[in-house]
């Protein structure tokens, strides 16, 4: 009720602006840096000095001399994250279906294992894998990252999907069968459309997590063959060894942030429901 | 939930498995013997299908975590340096002795605990405030607020680390310029050349990036508090603070506990921000970085594995304390239908 008064409106505008600044400021900050010319980087100003704003940082990483480094990292990140997401979502869908729909001993064991895996310190997995991967030739390969990424993407996928699938009214399937559909038809027509949004949301969340990985990325790769973007950013070097790669890193950071922000803008409702239903209540 | 006959019988019989079914069979006469037999076939088929579907995910989870940790435990018992593989030697718990008697371990543990406690405390307050804002916001801005709050969640931690690093960096930063009027801040302040200020930026970046997660969990918790309760409190003349303390917060205790535990475990494993900003210099090293430095930079596989195992034990300890002390019922609030 107080919301509709003028004072309430002013208050809410202020609060909204504060939240927007909080959430977006660091992003805008690195965006501003990415347009600074090398000579302008030390100006101590937030924005590029007027007239000096330049896209040369973007040119350097997209078509210039840092191109090889950045584009291969981008390709690795996209490929590895997509494959890890795909495998995790397929396996998690089967698993979550079984948990929500079937009765078998060990259900709780599967969920507890998923929980335990998700709290596992990544670094504790990396050390032995580092040694093992070197021995069996998986070090610095796509597969060498896809496998450990499953430890990040599988547990959250199982939890999120199990929560989604529990809310599906499975009786619909029976109803469709009573109406003359075959088992498969009933499943496809009645259940798949209800389950699809959950599967899709889970895929987005799993992709976020794989895309965000840093520890595996820097520990299990050494060259452009498999090094993903976050790791590549950390090992970026400037155009010359006397120049800090600040501009190039900022530009690269912006490029890898754009797809994420687009995903967030497009699917914010689904992401929120997916995150919270998986984590708080089934 | 119940999908007609099969599901119903299975829920009944899953609590009393095989042997009792047979005992029952013996007492019943021949005429009714077939029915339970048939059901138990179905039960068996359903169990088999359940494990066929859930099995692959379960096995992979074990392979990607249980196997490496067992390997780490094994390797931690050797003096083993990758550059000198011939000198590999079994030394039992020797590596643990070396680590636990080294002040570096204790100083890194202290830094990690400090970061965990401060970030989780700040995030809980900030996240709760953001959750309240989202919960009470006018319909027209609710979507906008949610989207904005989700942005940090989506940003790569490394990108967030660079954004904060460049803002505070002595050469490329603008923070010194902007906040020069504050005591202690001037253009020559090098935030990353001393522990406390470096930790401040590291924690700020961590807080910015992960508060959205905690606030979404708390928002879900808020949504579960029945409206009638706060209405009733309001009618009874309770102030806003009293409503919070007596009605809202007690009713969302489970959500708060889960959020705090998850964030604490996550913060305890902090790595990316520290690696980017200081790489552990000036007493900002955390345990994950110590493990990384031992095994991947120095190739001391034995020592590195021992640090990894100790870190894992710390995480287990946090979980154990949380579950025992605060009665966080992880499996209960989520696992059962």
Automatic annotation (TrEMBL), chain A:
<feature type="domain" description="ABC transmembrane type-1">
    <location>
        <begin position="74"/>
        <end position="267"/>
    </location>
</feature>
<feature type="transmembrane region" description="Helical">
    <location>
        <begin position="78"/>
        <end position="100"/>
    </location>
</feature>
<feature type="transmembrane region" description="Helical">
    <location>
        <begin position="142"/>
        <end position="165"/>
    </location>
</feature>
<keyword id="KW-1133">Transmembrane helix</keyword>
<dbReference type="Pfam" id="PF00528">
    <property type="entry name" value="BPD_transp_1"/>
</dbReference>
<comment type="similarity">
    <text>Belongs to the binding-protein-dependent transport system permease family.</text>
</comment>
<protein>
    <submittedName>
        <fullName>Carbohydrate ABC transporter permease</fullName>
    </submittedName>
</protein>
<dbReference type="InterPro" id="IPR035906">
    <property type="entry name" value="MetI-like_sf"/>
</dbReference>
<keyword id="KW-0812">Transmembrane</keyword>
<feature type="transmembrane region" description="Helical">
    <location>
        <begin position="12"/>
        <end position="35"/>
    </location>
</feature>
<dbReference type="InterPro" id="IPR000515">
    <property type="entry name" value="MetI-like"/>
</dbReference>
<keyword id="KW-0813">Transport</keyword>
<feature type="transmembrane region" description="Helical">
    <location>
        <begin position="190"/>
        <end position="211"/>
    </location>
</feature>
<keyword id="KW-1003">Cell membrane</keyword>
<dbReference type="InterPro" id="IPR050901">
    <property type="entry name" value="BP-dep_ABC_trans_perm"/>
</dbReference>
<feature type="transmembrane region" description="Helical">
    <location>
        <begin position="109"/>
        <end position="130"/>
    </location>
</feature>
<keyword id="KW-0472">Membrane</keyword>
<feature type="transmembrane region" description="Helical">
    <location>
        <begin position="248"/>
        <end position="267"/>
    </location>
</feature>
TrEMBL record, chain B:
<dbReference type="InterPro" id="IPR000515">
    <property type="entry name" value="MetI-like"/>
</dbReference>
<protein>
    <submittedName>
        <fullName>Sugar ABC transporter permease</fullName>
    </submittedName>
</protein>
<feature type="transmembrane region" description="Helical">
    <location>
        <begin position="49"/>
        <end position="70"/>
    </location>
</feature>
<feature type="domain" description="ABC transmembrane type-1">
    <location>
        <begin position="109"/>
        <end position="322"/>
    </location>
</feature>
<dbReference type="Pfam" id="PF00528">
    <property type="entry name" value="BPD_transp_1"/>
</dbReference>
<keyword id="KW-1133">Transmembrane helix</keyword>
<keyword id="KW-0813">Transport</keyword>
<comment type="similarity">
    <text>Belongs to the binding-protein-dependent transport system permease family.</text>
</comment>
<keyword id="KW-0812">Transmembrane</keyword>
<feature type="region of interest" description="Disordered">
    <location>
        <begin position="1"/>
        <end position="40"/>
    </location>
</feature>
<keyword id="KW-0472">Membrane</keyword>
<keyword id="KW-1003">Cell membrane</keyword>
<feature type="transmembrane region" description="Helical">
    <location>
        <begin position="113"/>
        <end position="133"/>
    </location>
</feature>
<dbReference type="InterPro" id="IPR035906">
    <property type="entry name" value="MetI-like_sf"/>
</dbReference>
<feature type="transmembrane region" description="Helical">
    <location>
        <begin position="301"/>
        <end position="323"/>
    </location>
</feature>
<feature type="transmembrane region" description="Helical">
    <location>
        <begin position="145"/>
        <end position="168"/>
    </location>
</feature>
<feature type="compositionally biased region" description="Polar residues">
    <location>
        <begin position="1"/>
        <end position="16"/>
    </location>
</feature>
